[in-house]
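Help needed: design a sequence for this.
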């Protein structure tokens, strides 16, 4: 799916923005929200959750994907992330997380916190040659 209606982005945006408001980011003070849509059109959101033991912090994408899987979603078709003032692209680890669970034509969107600066990539652009377990 390469040309979704504006309402799809609006719905993902609203879910990600609402989750971002709840981000637990006392150390970086960089709040992130993410929303994923599964194959049934359901939307799941997450925010980053930092920890005083820094490596234990979790990205917003991981939380959103976990909510999808816990609800029975197996694959996502769209991902939207919303961060600060500049462009946010999913970190390398989250690219691998999305690649694990996304459909082949999954689109990733990014917005600044104020809803401006829409960017769009395919997962193939973000993570070419993604690692998959072979046999
Ligand atoms: N962060 C995310 O939630 N997603 C990303 O793709 C990039 C980084 C979070 C992790 C940390 O809580 C904060 O942003 C600063 O790195």
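Sure. Designed sequence:
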């Amino acid at each position: 799916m390469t040309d979704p209606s504006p309402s799809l982005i609006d719905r993902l945006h609203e879910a990600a923005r609402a989750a971002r408001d709840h981000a637990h980011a006392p150390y970086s003070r960089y709040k992130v929200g993410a929303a994923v849509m599964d194959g049934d059109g359901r939307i799941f959101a997450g925010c980053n959750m930092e920890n005083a033991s820094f490596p234990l912090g979790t990205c917003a994408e991981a939380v959103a994907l976990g909510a999808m899987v816990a609800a029975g979603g197996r694959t996502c078709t769209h991902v939207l992330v919303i961060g600060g003032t500049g462009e946010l692209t999913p970190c390398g680890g989250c690219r691998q997380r999305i690649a694990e669970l996304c459909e082949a034509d999954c689109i990733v969107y990014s917005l600044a916190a104020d809803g401006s600066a829409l960017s769009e990539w395919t997962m193939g652009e973000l993570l070419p040659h993604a690692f998959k377990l072979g046999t």
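Residues 25, 28, 30, 32, 48, 50, 57, 59-61, 90-91, 94 surround tetrahydrodeoxyuridine (CB under 6 Å).
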